[in-house]
Amino acid sequence: MQDKEKNIIITILFVTILLTAFILNIIKEDSQISIVERRKLATFPDLSFDNIIDGSLSKEFEDYALDQFICRDEFRNIKSLWSNYIFRKKDNNGIFVKENAIYKIEYPLNAANVLKNTKKIDDICNKYLKGKKTYFCIIPDKNYYLDEDILKIDVSEMQNMVKKELPYMNYIDICNELTLKDYYRTDLHLKEENLLKAVNKIKEEMNLDIDKNANYDIEELGDFYGVYYGKQSKKLIPDKINILTNNTIKNSVTYNYETSEKSPVYNKYKFQTSLDKYDVYLSGATPLITIENLDSSNDKELILFRDSFGSSIAPLLIENYSKITLVDLRYISSKILDNYIDFNNQDVLFLYSTLILNQNVLK
Amino acid sequence: MVFSSITFLFYFLPIVLIIYYIVPTKLKNLVLLISSFIFYFFGEPVYVLLMAFSIFSTYIFGLLIDKYKDTKYKKIFLIVSIAISISLLVYFKYTDFIISNINLFITHKLDLIHVILPIGISFYTFQMISYLVDVYKGESKVQKNILKLAMYVALFPQLIAGPIVRYKTIANQLENRTHTFEKFSNGVRRFILGLSKKVLIANVLGELVNVFLASNEMSVLYYLLYGVAITLQIYFDFSGYSDMAIGLAKMFGFEFLENFNYPYISKSITEFWRRWHISLSSFFKDYVYIPLGGNRVSKLKWIRNIMIVWLLTGIWHGAAWNFIIWGLYFGILLILEKLFLSKYLEKIPSIFSHLYVMIIVMISFVIFSGENTTQIFKNLTGLVGIGGVPLVSPESIYYFKSYFLVIIISIIAATPLCKNFVNKLKCKKIINLLEPVFLGILFVVSTSYIIDGSFNPFLYFRF
């Protein structure tokens, strides 16, 4: 090829890419949400004198242009591939894939945040739970079980901090009751069907009856692409969401204080309609929800301070209680809990993942 | 608006290219002028008026200097016009810096004015000064068409991040320039390479720099990684922007002078500054150093001249002490080289002179990028392990492994090795065939990095 031909090809190629992308971006209908990224996409900014003059229009338009770019997901995949295979980076935006499972770097241990969270929990204990038997359990993030020399939270150090700051609590260690296979490959959460060993450990430490012959039916609901899936480029086979059911769980009902709605423990409608299929457990994230065991022959109650990991664990505890009240301190202030909860003789369990304890998100 | 944005690449640029090449020749300058103002308005809506005022002032004073060229008033008009430009620059860029330093010595503190720095003001102010001085010296004809002068100042390819284009360089091109496939494709090539340097290398290394700055887990390896990353990031970011500017200019028929010429292959700091930000160093040489007497004065005055130039070079980069220290640091090194160091540098094996330059430059960019003197001191001492930091840490080992290839690619790309290799190959037909493919891949991948919302800083907000 001669220089002249090359110059013409480069010119045509460049102009074609620019114009094609420009025209397609103009005629393409805007999407409202990204299923892969599980978020709302930016829409065309409102034009006003104020946002033009203060310069915010340019930022809003760039956000819109980025979110609505044609073949956005394919371009993100190209970036991920280049980062992984050309630059050989160990992670892409903190995400890496190992043996067909996806992980996110969570590092380092944020001691300041852990102390803020333990202080918050200590305040709750002093205000509402004096004299009550309280338990604390940390759920390790799945990176904890990776042998690979990667950056991960020092779970032992976090456990030591919690034990030191909350010495009056009974600490339950479930790290040895879990393995890497107990976590979804494409998500950060634990598979409910693999939780029995860890739940039995919790029950044992809390002096609850353990029915070794408890029969749970495993019901497969379908494919599950977890929260990490859309953040990397490999085409991995999806996880499956299975739920553990028995008559007690089937006859239990949840009440959501935020929506005033009653729902079954496993909300299959959410599984079909929600962007995050994990919402099948207790209908997803919410500040305050109760599970009532209608078959219960006792009046024992549990208050479970929890994050999203607690959603799949709580159903496995309901057979021991007549009622479980689940509090998610990410969405409700600890100062107003007594407006909703009558604190008396309940068991109290603080069940938090390392991921939440490492952040400053508890109210 | 920055070049490495979707708004610029896939909305602004195609629209401007279409209109520019559709309209008749006599309207092309008007299209460029309007689009340049829109380009600036989109990012700095209010300050577009400031730029318009500066252009108008420069236009009027240019005419006055020309009209009174044979009188003593010529000099007065030049001084007044430069004073206006410099006053605006000082007000917007240096007032808070000056006030905060005065406050160190007085009891009743003065309030800071908290004015936002107009992007590109340092670049276009210097361009206007170069025009006025060139007209004053008779090296350029006065521009009687304000629209053409406005286009010279506001031309969007060089408006916000340079290079500083002298009026005399493009005076003729404002009137008459050619548009060919060769020039356009050379522009495309240059633009894509610049975009790739910025997005694929500088921004990726910038992520490493940010991870380091956010970390509490310091080690000597981590400090070294930071030093290397910031040194490479600044080069690829700045030279990438210059490449994009030069490339865009070619697409619209202009020819800008080179701004970077592989500075990291230099064997001395003197050579480094002949290759780094050439438009700025030549501006200071022609408009400050030589008018002060250059080296044709006593040794003491010559040293004074050099230090003035480097003090100004430092402070031009930002209103903070680290930039002043950075400039003076280079001034002192250049004096030392001119006095005695250069003869030793010529004698030692080139690997040592390269090493000398890179260590000096790395230290300079650690100073350049520091937020405050405490952080700069910590980062500099950390580089050599002072302060009891361990040699390595888990985090530093992880990021060393993760960024190893990016750093190696960056180091190779900072030299003319690839260019020389390709030039030596005899299979030109195959190279010509592969080049469009290579450029297409780079453009698509750069776009994918931008779409992913990856780290994409604008480093010149303090310039």
User: Into which percentage range does the β-strand content of chain B fall?
Assistant: under 5%
The total count of helices of chain A amounts to: 11
What sequence of helices (H) and strands (E) makes up the elements of chain B? HHHHHHHHHHHHHHHHHHH
Distance between the termini of chain A: 67 Å
Please list the strands of the largest sheet of chain A in the order they lie side by side: 6-5-14-12-13-11-9-10
List how many beta strands of chain B DSSP finds. Answer: 0
The largest chain-to-chain contact, stated as pair and per-chain residue counts, equals: A-B, 50 and 59 residues
Number of domains of chain B: 2
Helix content of chain B: over 70%
Indicate the multimeric state.
heterodimer
- Unreliably modeled segments of chain B: none
Indicate the low-confidence ranges of chain A by residue numbers: none
Overview of the molecule:
The complex is a heterodimer of chains A (363) and B (463). Chain A has 11 helices and 14 strands. Helix content of chain A is 31%, strand content 19%. The longest helix of chain A has 25 residues, at 3-27. In chain A, the strands form 4 sheets. In chain A, strands 6-5-14-12-13-11-9-10 form an 8-stranded mixed β-sheet. In chain A, helix 5 (111-128) packs parallel to helix 6 (155-165). With 363 residues, chain A is an alpha/beta fold. Chain A folds into 2 domains: 3-98, no CATH class; 107-357, no CATH class. Chain B has 463 residues and is mainly alpha-helical. Chain B has 2 domains: 6-177, no CATH class; 183-462, no CATH class.
List the helices and strands and how they pair.
The complex is a heterodimer of chains A (363) and B (463).
Chain A: H1 3-27, E1 33-34, E2 39-40, H2 49-53, H3 56-67, H4 72-86, E3 95-98, E4 101-104, H5 111-128, E5 134-139, H6 155-165, E6 170-173, H7 196-205, E7 217-224, E8 239-245, H8 247-250, E9 252-256, E10 261-264, H9 268-273, E11 288-293, E12 301-306, H10 310-313, E13 323-327, E14 347-353, H11 354-357
Helix pairs in contact in A: 5-6
Chain B: H1 6-22, H2 25-43, H3 47-67, H4 73-102, H5 121-137, H6 146-154, H7 156-159, H8 167-175, H9 181-214, H10 220-251, H11 269-275, H12 278-289, H13 299-316, H14 321-347, H15 350-369, H16 373-383, H17 394-413, H18 417-424, H19 428-451
Helix pairs in contact in B: 1-2, 2-6, 3-4, 3-5, 3-6, 4-5, 9-10, 9-17, 9-19, 10-15, 10-16, 10-17, 12-13, 13-14, 14-15, 15-16
